[in-house]
Specification:
263 residues; mainly alpha; single chain; three-stranded antiparallel beta sheet
Length: 263
């Protein structure tokens, strides 16, 4: 995999992902795990859009690994529903499944709301200051209309909110559960006024948390997280080709596109 300045790195069993969701100090991943992490990140960030063909040879060359960790990673991604395998055609990034998005949302909401109840009691001044600082940076991203910066701040916000409850490791569980949801969320960010609406919703959650108002905090967070239900209808109407068909699987067409060209 090339370095930031374009120079090739030495061949390895897998790439070093741009950001390790486990955080600094995490155990070194195996080749398969690192390839899985990288491909999963590319799928959930839409760098590999729904319907994209996945060639083991091309991916191995792009990631500077052998085909074995790529093949094993694709198997894991297929088990997660992020990759589909079609006989005689090969592997493709799965189209977005609305039922899978709703299931991801159910898990995320259950965990985050439960953690927020605890955070109302436990959040200290430092946690509230970190959340307020994050909100200020969200407003700056909105002013710049910077969807990528906002996405990163949104993830940081929810992680910080969960850490305020004292349950730091639960964010890994949420991250694993919301892969399907993340693709829909990514598509929603360009919607008119969506960044500003989300920032306002985040602010309302923090205000309720600071007031130690558990019922208002819970109601506000639920409403915020459930906003994806409205967004997904708008997104699907605009880009139906990115979604799984209600009438059955859509047989893809393989086009020879090198993974480096999809970044």
């Amino acid at each position: 995999m090339p370095t930031n300045d374009g120079r090739p790195q030495g061949r390895d069993d897998g790439p070093a992902p741009g950001a390790d969701p486990a955080g600094p100090g995490a155990p070194r991943q195996s080749g398969r795990a690192r390839v899985h992490t990288e491909l999963r990140a590319r799928i959930t960030s839409l760098r590999l859009p729904p319907g994209s063909p996945l060639s083991e040879n091309e991916l191995a060359a792009a990631l500077d690994v052998s085909r074995t960790p790529v093949r094993e990673a694709l198997i894991l991604l297929a088990e997660e529903g992020l990759v589909e395998v079609f006989p005689k055609l090969g592997s493709f990034v799965s189209r977005i499944s609305v039922p899978a998005v709703l299931e991801s949302q159910f898990v995320r909401e259950a965990i985050e709301v439960a953690a927020l109840r605890v955070a109302v009691e436990r959040a200290d001044d430092a946690a509230l200051a970190a959340l307020r600082d994050n909100l200020a940076r969200q407003r700056a991203a909105c002013a710049d209309d910077d969807a990528q910066a906002f996405w990163e701040l949104d993830e940081e916000f929810h992680r910080t909110l969960m850490e305020a409850s004292g349950h730091r490791t639960l964010w890994r569980t949420v991250t694993t559960a919301k892969a399907h949801l993340d693709r829909a969320r990514r598509l929603s960010l360009p919607l008119p006024q969506r960044l500003r609406d989300l920032t306002g919703e985040h602010t309302a959650v923090v205000d309720a948390l600071a007031d130690r108002d558990a019922p208002r905090a819970e109601e506000t967070l639920r409403a915020h997280l459930q906003g994806v239900f409205d967004d997904i209808q708008t997104i699907r109407a605009r880009s139906p080709e990115l979604f799984e068909s209600d009438t059955g699987p859509v047989t893809p067409v393989r086009r020879r596109v090198h993974p480096r060209d999809r970044r």
